[in-house]
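Tutorial, part two.
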Amino acid sequence: MRIGIFAKTFPGTSPGPVLAAARAAGFEAVQYNMACSGLPSMPDAIPDDAARAVAEAAAQTGLAIAAVSGTYNMIHPDPAVRERGLTRLETLAAAAPALGTRLITLCTGTRDRDDQWRHHPDNATPQAWADLCAQMAQAIAIAERHDVHLGIEPELSNVISSAPLARRFLSEMASDRLVIVLDPANLFETEAATEREHRIAQAVDLLADRIVMAHAKDRNPDGSFATAGNGVIDFPGFLARLTAAGFNGDLVTHGLEAHEAPQVAAFLRATLAAL
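Running the prediction step on this input gives:
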């Protein structure tokens, strides 16, 4: 596995310094965000020179661009917001190969109007599921036009809130353009050790054939997020299960401060080496 990090962890609005900081902290790959190029995360336009600058910075630093963030609220209550998201997704998909990646990460959305990462009780309704299916069908068509893949993530606060729902969604959409990003910290909040270990193991077992990227952040006992290695997740067990399932993709950390990055890189590298 390559060890990566969210590029946005490091301050800056130019890809050269941002990627150099990621390399200096000990990483081999980044999940890129267009904010690191001084643009909105989901821009209306990506100039050709902005895309080339990312690829050139990656080549100069020896870093891989594992993915680019394309998150927007796919089931926002306002259809106009969803349509703007789709338009911007096409912009990002068209530029992704020039950036150096063919993977775009998505958010399966929430009915919350203000925060795409906040749970809403209507997320579990049939209409929310239908809206997500309709939106994703259009996103898949975009992915096919531009030869990219779309990574979705089981996330408690979103429509796809569990591994079984992710498996159902993959089956219903029936497209190999749709793949899985697995973050164990997004599968539970304050559950006991046996339950969280069950959910993590279940997720790997159910989704192994479609997992292309794993995320590495942690949870504190009170449910708040922690940096990888400082919380309750059994990372040796998680990474051993991923490896046994045949996963050899990027392991990308996030939810940390820039000054913590070298320590997390060392922790992940040592954990993988011990396997």
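The two ends are 12 Å apart (CA to CA). In part three we will examine how such features are distributed along the chain.
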